[in-house]
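Friendly challenge for the regulars: who can give me the structure tokens for this chain first? No prize, just bragging rights.
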Amino acid sequence: MSEEYTSPLSLPPLGLYIHIPWCLKKCPYCDFNSHAFEKSFPENEYIKALLNDLENDLAYVQGRTLQSIFIGGGTPSLFSPESYAQLLSTIQSAIPFSEDMEITLEANPGTFEQNKFADFRHTGINRLSIGIQSFQSEFLSRLGRVHSANEALQAADIAQSAGFQNFNLDLMFGLPGQNTEQAMDDLNRAIQLKPSHISWYQLTIEPNTVFYSQPPDLPEAELIESIQDEGLSLLESENFNRYEISAFSKPGKQAQHNLNYWQFGDYIGIGAGAHGKISLPEQKQIIRTRKTRQPQTYLDANESYLAEAVAIPRSDLVLEFMMNALRLREGVAMEKLEARTGIDPGELSAVFSKLQQEGLMQTSDLCTTPKGYNLLNNVLQAFMI
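First reply, four minutes later:
Bragging rights claimed.
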């Protein structure tokens, strides 16, 4: 594939990712940039650093409004509502918010964080993503979670009482020693709590985790397939639409921030280790940014937080675009490929034809067939060109 752009880039919607790197305890399966603290963490200093970091990136806004904010971690709910009020107010003074702005905070269901849910809502945060993982004590213990089964059950009620009508419950399956009945019990309990969104995904073992060096005894592939098939049927019967591989929502409650990722939108990333993706039409480039990873190094950065900013080679753009877009059950419109990568879809006509003949892709827009969705890795291999 030629490295010359055949079409102009356009500016896609813009989101903001904010990373909070501290947590009470590092879970053995977690490969995120999270760091357990012993006594305290420098909350005020970190908020100041985040705002300085954002100021350095304001040129990336390029006249756009902000469509969404996602505050992830770590455990962002450890920070105070007062800190988020200051943070969000200053961000809004720098970048206009869209009218239907989505602001998500990741939260743990422990009592300490639950007591702050109402105050978080008053800051303008309008969506919670609550890290349940399981409602059963034995599995919470095996996963190294610090909350109890009872706290997990209470979290949704407290979120709703605090005014959150839009919240996600994060749930895993394929846990060490888990059978189908136990996995379905977790999923049924989540559904009964009436969330607007459920993230339901298989536990996987990632490098640089405790589970990688000390692997647990996970269910066999046949059992995993049985759990997934039964869970998908249950979620569908309860009107949770599977709009992405592991994301299920009530009508109109898809995670807007994540949709922007999967549709190859732009996002600024601030905070220790945060990543960003920015389109620069005038330079005919799309760049990836990465901030300094270690929290103390980030705080000591003297307002120079950028660790890396590199242009994505045009030869990599097709695969990067497809790896995101084809995760969506309904895919994306064909014109988005051209608008957001500068690549004429005609260059890929032979690949599209082959996948369509194999029954893996639809003949209109960029969307897999049901068969292709189940064989997504095979589909993506065709775009490694």
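The radius of gyration is 21 Å. The mean pLDDT is 93. Your move, everyone else.
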